Queue: 4 jobs
Job 1
Amino acid sequence: MLSPILPDDADVAIRVRGLRNAFGDQVIHDGLDLDVRAGEIIGIVGGSGTGKSVLMRAIIGLQRPAAGTIEIFGEDVAELDAAAARDLRRRWGVLFQDGALFSSLTVAENVEVPMREFLGLPEAIMDELAGYKVAMVGLPPEAGPKFPNELSGGMRKRAGLARALAIDPQLLFLDEPTAGLDPISAAAFDDLIRELRDALALTVFLITHDLDTLHAICDRVAVIADRKVLAVGTIPELLTFDHPWVKSYFTGPRGRAALSGKQAA
Ligand SMILES: Nc1ncnc2c1ncn2[C@@H]1O[C@H](COP(=O)(O)OP(=O)(O)OP(=O)(O)O)[C@@H](O)[C@H]1O
């Protein structure tokens, strides 16, 4: 039930097996397995430094693992030639922890960066598409010509999301998307992620410390501890899991507050 490996007949978007990541003597992951089901929002949790971001970076090819395999949509990423890797790369979008917008480009120009890299469309079409993406993430049209430093934190996150969605990915990677947002903006961002997943049939890999986000939008939650994915399940399933970190995370003061908020909703 709480296994990180799904049954053979499951529709799996990301399959990780035996992953090992290390920096010098520091081993971050060892023998890590994880299946992400197509169409789900999977929350990735774990204490600080357990390697959530490193796992994401390994999956999207920014961190070369020391061992193990990673398959995305059935393709072993280590086996692909440059052209096939580029084709696969087009199928995901990423919102990094700090938004990672180019500060010297406007929001619309930021959204056009992946379009220029992968699509090579005429300028007028890219401008039109960028306007559409800006609207899709709930930003007003006036946000398009603004620079990132002219936006609030919440608007910058939305701009980053618009760029992540620029070329219609099937997979969306989000690294702590609600960090630094006030609770109302964070809840609105959660709603937006769920609406977009539903409307665009996305698979969402979501790293978060935000218990409210886990309760509000995640179909399953994967817990990283002891260099592995320790357990994957719904929150009620994880509440039955006997591990000190899992217990204190979900049933400590913050976990209980999020749980009672969910029950009251
Ligand atoms: N490029 C790198 N070189 C050396 N060490 C690294 C590198 N990237 C990450 N690490 C180390 O790997 C460990 C895991 O980092 P990671 O950022 O994945 O943690 P995390 O679980 O996402 O943490 P947090 O919840 O605090 O964001 C940390 O000890 C970090 O210092």
Note: Strands lie at 12-23, 26-37, 41-46, 67-72, 75-76, 92-95, 171-175, 203-207, 220-225, 228-233.
Job 2
Amino acid sequence: MEDRRVEEIQDMALSPPTMGSMQISGSNGFGNNMEFMSQACLRNRHTEIDIEDGKLNMNQEQPLPIFVKFEDVEFKVRRPRDSSANPAKTAVSKVASPGDEVQDNYKRILKGITGSIGPGEILALMGPSGSGKTTLLKVIGGRLRENVTGSITYNDIPYNTALKRRIGFVTQEDVLLPQLTVEETLVFAAFLRLPGFMSPQQKYARVELIIKELGLERCRHTRIGGAFVPGISGGERKRTSIGYEILVDPSLLLLDEPTSGLDSTSANRLIQILQGLAKAGRTIITTIHQPSSRMFYTFDKLLLISEGYPVYHGNAGESLEYFSSLRFNPEIAMNPAEFLLDLATGQVTGISLPDDIPEPEGSLDSDKSVIKYLQLKYKTLLEPKEKEENSQNRRAPEHLQLAIQTKKDWTLSWLEQAIIIYKRTFKERRRDYFDKLRLVQALGIAVMLGLLWWKSETRNEAQLRDQIGLLFYICIFWTSASIFGAVYVFPFEKIYLVKERKADMYRLSVYYVCSTLCDMTAHVFYPTFFMLIVYFMAGFKRTVACFFATLFATQLIAVTSQGVGELFGAASMNIKRAGMFASLVLMLFLLTGGYYTQHIPSFMQWVKYISFMYYGFRLLLKVQYDGGQLYECESKGGCRPLQSSPSFDTVNLGGGLQEVWVLLAMALGFRLLAYFCLRHKINMCHL
Ligand SMILES: Nc1ncnc2c1ncn2[C@@H]1O[C@H](COP(=O)(O)OP(=O)(O)OP(=O)(O)O)[C@@H](O)[C@H]1O
């Protein structure tokens, strides 16, 4: 019995959303939504009884009905100090924009927005560019939390992190890894985000369905592309972004301008898909610029925003009636969306107006008076009704409230996630790893060094100094190559990481470990080729043990430096700053690395002990010039024991493997620090 139930659930999870069993007609009133939610509760309860081992969580198979209420939502940002050099411009900007009130040096972006939306409905956010649609969407999606006032509840519960995996957010800019193909993007997302109990076949089938539904068959094997990588078209990228989010059937789907860049047929098709998703029980909020008339009437609710104020909220189809009741009527046949946008911008050419709009006074021009009038009417006519409705609404059933607050377990174990993320990271970065130019550079430099130090000897101190110079150069080369190879990784991948972490797709530790391990392959691969050439051309000690020990030392230097680069990248998360800090510290460690410095003042002596270059260089020297070689050198005359050389802050050649342990500890320590910095920075970042 239980098996059959599990199969049913799996089938449901695979079935197209439009064919879901929870079809209801678009409901606009709260009553319908409550009924809907009650039905959903019964279903959930039924399933919970059927699956007793607790492994399957009903919430993973069917969307949890979510009713979103927002009341008096305000959002403000700190104003940057006025940098305008033009006093006239500053003066004008201070008076000409009454909507942009400045309080305590903050600019108000959202100015008291109230509304609600339930499962089965689509709410369209409309308004002129810069009116605050995206900001409101981010606030509702929990992406903006600071400086937000008012109340936003999900089944009467405020936002909490357990909601992350129930919310799908399609951002205005498509945030997709550029080197993956469309299919790879969706497959990796499916394997990371779909419940663990679904078989791989079912996950592939879900991807197939999304590709078909969104018309992505033609470009499924094309790379996503980006600024420097050719790839799919803007519309295809947008559809892939949408597929990426709807793949997991989120309960609350937020979309920022999903139709921008699409032709009208594709846009209509997309809206149909959204309708299907809504009918199957999702709550959908979308910003939209200029929908066609056909599209406009598919929305259940409309929130029209002007300069951060609401000017209409309610049934989309009834919006024209409302404005007509205020005596705003189009004089010619117009697309309703165009008419509403004209009103929200105050551009009223071709629109008949009521006579009670106050004459523009002071700095207010006529556009502003229309907007002010509409804002006032909203405040007096619509807002009280909206608030009353919200307060009269029955509370959501208790277990739905509980479900909102219950954090779902990870659907995959740490190792399972790591295997998928490792594969994805490798695919995404493999072009960097096997970059021909990089290989040519490493091999070219190796050959050049080999020729310059061709069969170098250590018969006297001058020769010995020469060879030690080469060792220090090798140390610098791999230190800087590895630091700069690693420092930009996190700043570059920040947007992808923030997006995926906001959706709780995987553990951050998984991402970090996979990223560092993948890159380590390259940090080990290149020094190996390099050393194979330099070592034998330059005439280092010809024993197998010594070659492998030198190779190991070089790789260890590269791997430790990679950790340092990651630390700077993670600590700043900014390409420019990370590069600057890395070069500064590299320079300091280089100077105190033991080659140049002979008379460091005692108060600066400590620097060398934190310099991985100091230990790396010592290790290379130890491997190459152990007691035997120096003794031989000395016995032929002219070569003093290295310890007594005044030119190097060198080695106690009798030492053991302490440099190896120090470098290993540093490689691990820098990585741990990098991980915690990354964790802190990513939690603070918003998209
Ligand atoms: N973090 C911020 N700092 C300063 N200003 C901001 C910030 N976020 C938003 N704004 C400003 O708030 C206003 C609303 O921005 P928002 O992106 O929400 O507009 P929008 O209606 O979505 O516009 P569009 O349709 O062009 O995307 C804009 O004037 C924008 O410059």
Note: The chain has two domains: 68-78+97-175+250-263+272-405, 414-684.
Job 3
Amino acid sequence: MDAVTAPPPAAVEIVALTKRYAAGTPPAVDRIDLRIASGSYCCLLGPSGCGKSTTLRMVAGHESVSSGDILLDNRNITHLPAAARGTAMMFQSFALFPHLSALDNVAFSLKMKGVSRVERHRRAAQLLDRVAMGHLAQRKPGELSGGQQQRVALARALITEPRVLLLDEPLSALDPFLRIQMRAELRRWQQDLGLTFIHVTHSQEEAMALADTMVVMNQGLIEQVGTPHEVYNHPASEFVARFMGGHNVLALPHGLIAVRNDHMRIAPEGEGEGLAATITDVEYQGTYVLIGLRLADAAPAMREASVQLAEKSFAARPYSVGEHVRLSWSAADARALGPGAIRPEAPPAGTPSVRQPLSALATMAA
Ligand SMILES: Nc1ncnc2c1ncn2[C@@H]1O[C@H](COP(=O)(O)OP(=O)(O)OP(=O)(O)O)[C@@H](O)[C@H]1O
């Protein structure tokens, strides 16, 4: 097989995966279960400290597992060394060797495997061509832009012919403009290569732009798994609604609901029904105006709300800070929120760690 032909994609299954860094401390990852479809783009998303990097590092084999299992194409890789797993990692800072050319950076792992110079350079050059970097093969990382370094890092990860590419905040070292450009490139590469990508990010926007499947994590648990559309339009819990942003969480007598702030209606006091509120901010954002509000009859933690008004609507009836208004929404736009992730009970001693066979992986197909 040619070195640059994409190998068959793989599916990853994580079963009751747990990481406890020190006895007596809460687990960083707590018995999570997750299936990632072959050839899909999966984003692990959550606030700092939620356990997403720990999960990725355990899949990569860079962190030991406290309990649970990781399967790749039905093969248990939990205790295999990183190089024997069929995964490759692309790091935040790309971790390129500064004294080596792009070509030698890409060829490095083949050198370690004892592949001849001619052969490893041939394969590295092919991969650099593939990421449109062939013409800069002799440059050192310091002579390349951030985006070019990212492509070299990608080529270097691909030379081991991984079935799953693991990316830990791969865009965060780039400036905002380049980040959006490279984000689109990552997505294109993933589709071209047909590989499974697992990408860790704390950016909702990045995950929404890239993912077939978003996995929202909170305190070592998975709060929600779904397509970006599902997660944004049907947040499972208060945590997800607040973390994704763009939602109001409202306490009603029958429980909490979330309503997207572009689905809220606003009317001047006396001209409409709904929750009484006072305007605290008015922010012009170009295509829309974001109105910040304080609800009159809500508990302190639930008092803030926002409404996104199309620029035209705002121009037709401008609002200003201090104005008293009423907020309402259609029942069809309200999403009942569940309690969120429930920490699982500790399994009884002696329970086998792989609880279910790898089957029906298509459930999360893109
Ligand atoms: N090597 C370590 N030793 C001890 N605790 C650790 C170690 N690495 C991470 N932790 C802890 O485990 C928890 C999860 O960390 P992790 O890095 O997985 O989170 P994260 O969601 O990736 O956060 P970030 O976005 O800040 O990288 C945190 O409470 C963190 O302090």
Note: The first strand starts at residue 12 and ends at 19.
Job 4
Amino acid sequence: MRVLVADHPLIAHKLTVLRDKNTPSPVFRQLTEELVTLLAYEATRQVRVEPVNIETPVTSTVGTGLVKPTPLVVPILRAGLGMLEGMTRLLPTAEVGFLGMARNEETLEAITYAERLPEDLTGRQVYVLDPMLATGGTLIEAFKFLFDRGAADITCICLLAAPEGLAKLEAVHGARDNVHVVLASIDEGLNEKSYIVPGLGDAGDRLYGVVD
Ligand SMILES: O=P(O)(O)OC[C@H]1O[C@H](OP(=O)(O)OP(=O)(O)O)[C@H](O)[C@@H]1O
Ligand SMILES: O=c1cc[nH]c(=O)[nH]1
Ligand SMILES: [Mg+2]
């Protein structure tokens, strides 16, 4: 498993505004999209490409095309949905599948309440979108789902991770060279409610303004 924390002053700045409890939902949504586009630039470094022959107005040349089938992007509802637009802006031909998952805030168990993915993911590159990696329970379930269907490799883009969640993911997938996590920040840790500290609060609530 490879973990990459994107190191860029604009990412740090946008993340700071996102963390601020006074940032309203419309600004939060806009910043989330912008951050994802910046992180996606790093996360897609290993996207599969092949040579393609094209004609420019001047001559024939060999360029670069995405290998088909193109990658599958999987936002984890709700909060991951706020990252979709920022991702598809960079990868407009990607297909999109959906996983609806919610963490039970008492047991911290991740429950899957919706799934709309291709049955067969054999050989596919998959990009999972979820802003928060807290205990890691949600991503471990999501990755299991995708690998069980044959996904070849998984790159997850998150905004924040807690060291505890990363360690849990590492314990399950550490030996794999086909799991990548791209982040804007590794925060200090989890509080007594397993929220990320300093964090940004509940990402779904802040994106959509509904407190659950
Ligand atoms: O690493 P974990 O401890 O599993 O927690 C992280 C999960 O919690 C949040 O979703 P939530 O369950 O709040 O659902 P929501 O997106 O509908 O708000 C977040 O978007 C992750 O999916
Ligand atoms: O800090 C956290 C932890 C889980 N889910 C969130 O949205 N935020
Ligand atoms: Mg939530």
Note: The domain at 2-48+65-196 is CATH 3.40.50.2020 (Rossmann fold).
